[in-house]
Amino acid sequence: MNGSLETPTDHKDFLLSTLAEEMILSNESEVLLFRNLSPDTQSPQFQLQPYYGDQLEVYRNFYSSIHGYISIMVCLFGITANCMNIIVLTRKNMVSPINVILTGLAVADMMVMVSYVPFSFHNYVRTGLEEKEKFTFGWALFTLFHAHFTVVNHTIATWLTVTVAIWRFMAVCYPAPTMRYRGIPQARIAIACTYIVCTIFCIPNYITFTVASSLDYQNNTIYKVNFSELAMRHGGLLASINFWMFSVISKLVPCIALTGLSFSLLKVLYEANMRRQRLKVGSDNDKCHDRTTKMLLAVLFLFLLTQFPSGMLALLSGALGNEFFNNVYLNFGETMDILSLINSAVNFIIYCSMSRQFRLTFTFLFFTRFSKDKWAAVPPSEPTQTVGTACV
Q1: By CB neighbour count within 10 A (0-12 exposed, 13-18 middle, 19+ buried), where does 249 fall?
Q2: For residue 160, what is the domain's CATH number?
Q3: 125 in helix, strand or coil?
Q4: What are the tens digits of pLDDT across the range 132-185?
């Protein structure tokens, strides 16, 4: 195809396969694909030669066999870590506009992983189920809910990451000490708007898919997520729009924006360091300011590292057509899932490794109170003294 993905009506045989739900799906294959089937029921028709499809399918079959266990471990760690992020970032001594936004980000990331645990367990761990047990109406409804729920929350997390970058860029370029507290209402408004707008933005995704019934080889009724009747009209126009909106645009636009903002922040950091070296001065506030910016840059670079590849694969799928989609994009589905989950799970590690104030508050909350003999209590005033620097 030239420049566009074929419509669902061009894939009647494909829609009958075990991966039909991945055809034009939401935010990449990511943590939200409508894969309602286990890897062990894949159709052999996907062993195609173009783009090394047969070799990539060997890789996918291997990784799919362990993906369920790895993804569940990542999710359990990520849920725990994001709970701790929320607890620490909402302490009084941690209050700042950036931390308010990071709290909203932690909530969205946690919701993605909460939904993925039962999805992964049913589709990747319980591989011995018969089709009539695996594809019940209840599980099909859950799969549809999981897909929409994770699409919304992943989109929210994506744009909150962009919001953090914009907010930090403004704080670095136009510093105003009084904005530390005055900016908190604006940060909360930004979070609320992101949650509301992203939920509305995903409406095309809601109406593209539905639960459809069919008969298996034993004449049992099974239920799977498939394209809705509305999505199939006009040559699959809605399905194609949905693909370009959620797999390509909603991935690449934030990545491009974050790339520009990240380089701008790096430039500001470099200029600030050169200025301090010339003057041979540097206050503690300046150092803390730089540490915060570096930490947020680490968060941004992690997002780009885990999300940009899926956006590029989706773009190439739209440009090169079904052979690339079937042989490359689909075979990296679980890999893109785990990258998205890792991105949602490891911000806690970044905060702990790069923010002294976060470590102090975390230690005081989770260790000092339970092991007073081994840890010296952190006076409430100590974190408060550094809060004015807007350190995370």
Answers
A1: middle
A2: 1.20.1070.10
A3: helix
A4: 889 999 999 999 999 999 999 999 999 999 999 999 888 877 776 555 556 899
**392 burial level (CB within 10 Å; 0-12, 13-18, 19+):** buried
pLDDT above 90 as % of the chain: 48
Q: How many residues does the chain have?
A: 392
The answer to whether position 68 is within a domain reads yes
Number of domains in the chain: 1
Are 107 and 62 a contacting pair, CB within 8 Å?
A: no
In the predicted model, what is the mean pLDDT of the chain?
80
- The residue that leads in pLDDT, 16 or 294, is 294
| Domain coverage including residue 227 | 53-277+289-362
Assess whether pLDDT exceeds 80 at residue 370.
Answer: no
Spatial separation of the C-alpha atoms in residues 343 and 350, rounded to whole Å: 11
pLDDT at 27 over 70: no
Residue 164 lies in a domain: yes
Q: Indicate whether 220 belongs to any domain.
A: yes
d(CA 267, CA 256): 17
Whether the per-residue pLDDT at 373 is higher than 70: the answer is no
H or E segment and range at residue 271: helix 250-279
Tell whether 254 is covered by a domain. yes
Q: What is the pLDDT of residue 369?
A: 60
pTM: 0.81
